[in-house]
């Protein structure tokens, strides 16, 4: 799929990528050692961008709703991830090429070959082929497989339907597709081995003895669940509430490509919102977001082999059942607003519902916020309804009471069949079997009790099954037992909360921000493109560039003074007093995404006025120190935009030689 | 060693510990599964305290000096940590009890037994024994070993000298001490096995094939070093500069006890400051800190078996050579100022120099900032001079140019012996051996060249060693070679920078903050102690508690309004509108370390004035909204202290029933 830049120019990924590396937004980890697939470091601007996005995330979610933030360990004993289901089920399907030993991810393999065949078919039909840009490595391999061969119309339809639901297949189904369509590894011409499950967790050993296996967490969620009872207590027993956590998680991807989008170590920001499963999972603040419009791609559309979306207000989507409940809907809308705030292109977001087989083992429903990039639609935020799955399995395994006890405002009367045993006679009668028989009786269901009450009335005795006592059938006469229907009053209710989990992959979001905010200006009369990253000021790595007109001594005190002023305001700035031209210095900082620039010139020395430059328009205004600082603060806080400043302050036509957008 | 609280009261660790857990500052990870030694989670207040300390760290170090922050991966391929020396040398000495299989850390074992014997000796001499508080588990084991046995005076002296330099011993020496003094495991009465090295890194495998071993980083430093060349480029080739990183590191401790002080996963904040090794490692801002006084415990004192400290201005310590150079001294002082700012007790800091054998394999000199706690003196910040060690080994291994090329202002003339070969004759003469002989000649040292020049002049030929050519001796006659002394002019200088590394263990610092800021108020006439954590406002987890006088409806809008006002100011607050008494509610927040409280009463509803309460003195003032908010902001930013506020605003004698410090 061909993508475009923020200004509608054709998007050229290698150019952006080389710019991001040159400006050290990120860099492959251990590059001087040849690098390791799926591991990347953030350099100074990447690190600052990440910190700013996380900071806004905290304000938007944690502070706004008084969530309880925790910081749990990544090292996790195996037992916990066994209970949570990750040891058995957190796997991808992996094939091996029997000829060259290549390890291949099965779903990606099927996807690539079928896409290549569809492309070949289009070529054979003489249709224009839309180039889906790929990782260069991937492209090389694939090109071998692309031959202009026409397919039957029915086959084309089959392929398209398979691709629309590729995430819905398990290992056996992927194996069957490989057999059915004779999919061969282009590198060797050989069909790979049947898919085998490969667990994605990194294993290690905790402590000096070898019998304490552990894993690096694949998500931050488990640590939050294990602390549920303490967090509920900390929250003074009030429901609903949410915990939140920002931290690294680890997934041992089979063969990571696609740069920052598929990595083995990544920063996650996760929320676990605990809600009463009864009463339709309402949310008290749902009305605040009901009008927010989202682009939705639901499960049924995908299963029908299609990818049509519709734009709909979340209030309506919940009302008509597209989105299951208010709490899920509330968070989808809040996620949308967050992505908007940090600078995601509004035309490149959709929310896609998971299909049944695609969902994680713990999820009852799940919607992904997907962002469009040159790699296709990328899952950046998951919003799953994990139901009571996790709390239930951990409570069962440990006996810990991971539940809510709620005092009922109106006590409930419950009609039920109760059993009374004449303990004085019962014990001596059954002797050593007494306890076993008693336990079997206590365990009888309400239905069974009703039937037995009838039996007791008719026959004066009942016969019940008690494993391990005599023949397994035990007779109890009416002088030992009574069964009666009575009314019991409940003052409290116990329940296991359900969990709605918005889960953010910060690294993926950052990559999408790069693509969504990138564009180029014409070069200085030449053909060299000058890159710009138009990050919104609140997320930009550095907010203000300070440039003196020249290296003249008289500018130095003002540079120092303005740096300090900005630091006091909590605004990050950088000085560029290199000998490069002012235009060059601004260019460099356009690439770093610095939204504002202050030029210090001779007039500044005389009257303490400064010019303030806007990165995106390259327009400048001029005013005195206090006015300029106030303007900067309002832009960085997101209270005003440049258009407001331009209206308020006098324009300045100055030294800069920027050439407008071509 | 008996410790006291902030107010000089006897310190009771179990009481503090239970309060910290009750208020969820921290909690053992996976507690419902029985917990895992050395792993802890931070709950909401711990998490906020940690975030605030890290935030102040960034401001104090990174922003103040324009350091280049990076975020590198924890997963690290084995090759890198092999090169850095960690695979071979990053180990502790471990013994095994042959009887019960206990795994014991050798140095801690020797320390404990000798201390127990010294205590027994004191008892036998009828001296008062100063109770050194220990972890409860540890205490139980140890008590068995403590018997009141008098030792020879000479033995007492030996033991004391060994303990003063316990960190200086290697495995062999620890084994010898165990043999010599017949140290037996109190649990079994058996002497443990000789110490063996146990590597402290967690191992794993990166990727699906099993031949890519990796480790979790034991420090954040390596990622910074590997990016050195790119960071220098990012810094526009300017030296000196520093990189910085905040992130988790992992050490597989043998048998972690001592709560938050010895853990297997921990947050580190590390700085790598790159400095020219020539010119005495001066620092341009050293004069700003020269008068800062530090408490120093140097290497010589420890080796003499003593622990005497002296308080000295860092300027003097550098001048007299106690601290090696200005850059190291600058950072020691900056560390001191940081610790002071975040609330470390000034009477409980010392800087201890490492002894030769104690230093990490990479360090040329190292001073630890140690903080005094009920566990003894704890290393919280290390400040090592890693010399050029790391950059050199990685450059050597990979061939990457991890060095600085500096243009010399005045070019240097270098006199040297240069060799000219007559290439036309040389090649044909030596044929296939030509290249080998040439390489051997080029590798000749200056000294050797001078001697050979003499030989050539005398004999008309020289004889040189060339391995692998003929007999290993090769004759070169004067028609093939000339050796002359000439002057060469150098315009650039290349050097590998040295690294000064301040390295902060954030978790240890947090624990020390707990102990240093804890004290108790008398109970309500009873004997129950009421805990207070007197964190400085800038680091306190929550800054303001908002309490309505009662649950009266009229207070609700004001609560909401003031919450929003505080949030806009960037000040974190919490509302407590529970039915508990105001005193109780404040008590709870004293335990959470909340420095300020606003009471909303009926007068507030009428005239929008509020009372502001100081946690430490429980004094209150009353003023209008704007005045109160300004006071809060100035306290939270650390611009003013409570005494200032008390002078400026009218006191309020109100509802609270706090009882003063007993």
From TrEMBL, chains A, B:
Localisation: Cytoplasm
A Gene Ontology cellular-component term: mitochondrion
Gene Ontology biological process terms in this record: mitochondrial glycyl-tRNA aminoacylation
EC number: 6.1.1.14
Main location, first listed in the record: cytoplasm
Reactions listed under catalytic activity: 2 ATP + H(+) = P(1),P(4)-bis(5'-adenosyl) tetraphosphate + diphosphate
Family to which this protein belongs: Belongs to the class-II aminoacyl-tRNA synthetase family.
GO-annotated molecular function: ATP binding; glycine-tRNA ligase activity; transferase activity
Alphabetical list of NCBIfam families matching this protein: glyS_dimeric, PRK04173.1
Quaternary assembly: Homodimer.
Protein keywords: Aminoacyl-tRNA synthetase, ATP-binding, Cytoplasm, Ligase, Nucleotide-binding, Protein biosynthesis, Transferase
General function of this protein: Catalyzes the ATP-dependent ligation of glycine to the 3'-end of its cognate tRNA, via the formation of an aminoacyl-adenylate intermediate (Gly-AMP). Also produces diadenosine tetraphosphate (Ap4A), a universal pleiotropic signaling molecule needed for cell regulation pathways, by direct condensation of 2 ATPs. Thereby, may play a special role in Ap4A homeostasis.
Keyword Cell membrane: no
Domain Aminoacyl-transfer RNA synthetases class-II family profile intervals: 159-548
Name of the molecule in the record: glycine--tRNA ligase
């Amino acid at each position: 799929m061909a993508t475009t830049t923020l200004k509608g120019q054709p998007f050229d990924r290698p150019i952006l990528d080389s710019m991001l590396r040159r400006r050290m937004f990120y860099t492959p980890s251990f590059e001087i050692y040849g690098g390791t697939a799926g591991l990347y470091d953030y350099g100074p601007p990447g690190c600052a961008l990440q910190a700013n996005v996380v900071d806004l995330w905290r304000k938007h979610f944690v502070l706004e709703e008084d969530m309880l933030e925790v910081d749990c360990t990544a090292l996790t004993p195996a037992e916990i991830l066994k209970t949570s289901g990750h040891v058995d089920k957190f796997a991808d399907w992996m094939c091996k090429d029997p000829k060259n030993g290549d390890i291949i991810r099965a779903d990606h393999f099927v996807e690539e070959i079928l896409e290549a065949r569809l492309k070949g078919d289009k070529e054979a039909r003489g249709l224009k082929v839309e180039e889906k840009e790929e990782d260069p490595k991937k492209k090389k391999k694939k090109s071998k497989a692309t031959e202009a061969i026409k397919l039957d119309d029915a086959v084309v339809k089959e392929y398209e339907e398979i691709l629309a639901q590729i995430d819905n297949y398990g290992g056996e189904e992927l194996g069957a597709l490989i057999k059915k369509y004779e999919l061969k590894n282009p590198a060797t011409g050989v069909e790979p081995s049947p898919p085998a499950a490969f667990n994605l967790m990194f294993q290690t050993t905790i402590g000096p003895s070898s019998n304490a296996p552990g894993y690096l967490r694949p998500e931050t969620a488990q640590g939050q669940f294990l602390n549920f009872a303490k967090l509920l207590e900390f929250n003074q027993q009030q429901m609903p509430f949410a915990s939140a956590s920002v931290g690294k998680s680890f997934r041992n991807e089979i063969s990571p490509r696609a740069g920052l989008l598929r990595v083995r170590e990544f920063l996650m920001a996760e929320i676990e919102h605990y809600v009463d499963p009864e009463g339709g999972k309402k949310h008290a603040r749902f009305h605040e977001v009901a009008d927010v419009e989202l682009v939705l791609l639901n499960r049924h559309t995908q299963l029908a082999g299609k990818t049509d979306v519709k734009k709909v207000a979340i209030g309506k989507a919940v009302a008509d059942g597209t989105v299951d409940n208010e709490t899920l809907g509330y968070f989808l809308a809040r996620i949308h607003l967050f992505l908007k705030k940090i600078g995601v292109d509004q035309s490149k977001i959709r929310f896609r519902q998971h299909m049944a087989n695609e969902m994680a083992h713990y999820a009852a429903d799940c919607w992904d916020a997907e962002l469009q990039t040159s790699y296709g639609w990328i899952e950046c935020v998951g919003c799953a309804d994990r139901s009571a799955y996790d709390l239930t399995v951990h409570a069962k395994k440990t006996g810990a009471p991971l539940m809510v006890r709620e005092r009922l405002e109106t006590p409930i009367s419950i009609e039920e069949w109760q059993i009374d045993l004449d303990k004085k006679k019962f014990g001596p009668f059954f002797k050593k079997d007494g306890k076993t028989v008693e336990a079997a009786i206590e365990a009888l269901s309400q239905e069974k009790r009703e039937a037995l009450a009838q039996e007791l009335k008719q026959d004066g005795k009942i016969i019940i099954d008690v494993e391990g006592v005599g023949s397994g059938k035990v007779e109890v006469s009416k002088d030992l037992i009574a069964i009666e229907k009575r009314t019991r009053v409940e003052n409290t209710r116990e329940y296991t909360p359900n969990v709605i989990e918005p889960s953010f992959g910060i690294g993926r979001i950052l990559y999408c921000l790069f693509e969504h905010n990138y564009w180029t200006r014409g070069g200085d009369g030449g053909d060299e493109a000058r890159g710009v990253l138009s990050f919104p000021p609140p997320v930009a790595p550095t907010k203000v560039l300070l440039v003196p007109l020249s290296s003249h001594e008289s500018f130095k005190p003002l540079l120092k003074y303005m740096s300090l002023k900005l630091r006091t305001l909590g605004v990050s700035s950088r000085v560029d007093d290199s000998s490069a031209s002012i235009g060059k210095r601004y260019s460099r900082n356009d690439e770093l995404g610095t939204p504002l620039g202050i030029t210090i010139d001779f007039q500044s020395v005389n009257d303490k006025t400064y010019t303030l430059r806007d990165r995106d328009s390259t327009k400048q205004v001029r005013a005195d120190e206090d006015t300029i600082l106030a303007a900067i603060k309002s832009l960085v806080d997101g209270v005003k935009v440049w258009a407001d400043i331009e209206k308020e302050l006098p324009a300045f036509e100055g030294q800069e030689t920027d050439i407008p957008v071509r």
